[in-house]
Input
Amino acid sequence: MTVCNACRYCEQYCPVFPAMEQRVSFGKADLLYLANLCHNCGECLYACQYAPPHEFGINVPQTLAGIRLRSYEEYCWPRLLGAAFRHNGTVTALLLTVAFSALLYVATLMTNPNGLTRLVPAGDFYGVVPHGVMVSLFGGVAIYALAALAIGLRRFWRDVQGGPDALSPLAARRALRDVLTLRHLHTTGVDCTTNEEARSPWRRWYHHATFYGFMLCFASTSVAAVYHSVFGWSAPYGYTSLPVLLGTAGGLGLVIGPAGLLALRRRRDPALSAAGQQGLDESFITLLLVTSLTGLALLVLRNQAVMATLLVVHLGAVLALFVTLPYGKFVHGIYRTAALVKYAAELDPESQSPNPQDKRHG
Output
């Protein structure tokens, strides 16, 4: 970072370098902040005159990727599960899906055997797994996951907050724009790299499909909950209903986005990633893909005899996804959002803390 601060050739590539220039020394909190601010586009590695084979061997994306991984481990709750970030691979994700599906199948067989052995009228999911059981199980897991994510975010923010302690409206809008548009994957007007020779917008577009697909699925579940709890409208809902339309659009996004990201990873330069990161990245993408594929299949086949078994497999995948959210790549989006909020505040004088000792400007 000291060499980069003296060189400044990459000043306009991404937020990391302007944020770096706000500092004259680099403590642990500074490095954690810069690491989670990095979008891993790769531009600085290919432009750097001190990159390998230079004797300095500077590789900013790989260095920051390693620091990011350590930040996930350090801030997770409970801390004992920090090791999960290095062992959360694709095989683990698939095994969890199989294990939870088997567990749900046995539990359903014991509590509601008729739901698995007969054709449920009109594809009634709650005729297989009762509504109360589904809400209790997934509600409890979701609350735990949210609590773990919130505690991790609080720990991260406490350490990296530093100077700015409040956001002006302008800084808040800038941070929200940067989060929702992934603007920093093509800050200089050139899209993200796959390797030193290739530039394309696909990584950004696949991220968008994944993020907005996830949000549409969340919206679908929320609308269905309102339908059931507020209006007393019981599922299944028609193919043209709002929950189904939102869920279908979200499911398609969660097929296109994760499938595209997995394909890109096969061609992405390994020099841009830290050791042990590949499994972490691919396990989350794989779980999203399995969840969306089984969900769409369930929608199409909900009036068929296979529906009950398919529902159990889908719920097993969703449960595996929820359980691993605080210990997988999902936290990457949480911490990066926090870093972008801090970056927006640092750029805006109105957001600066009035306490001079809190400022890090050189």
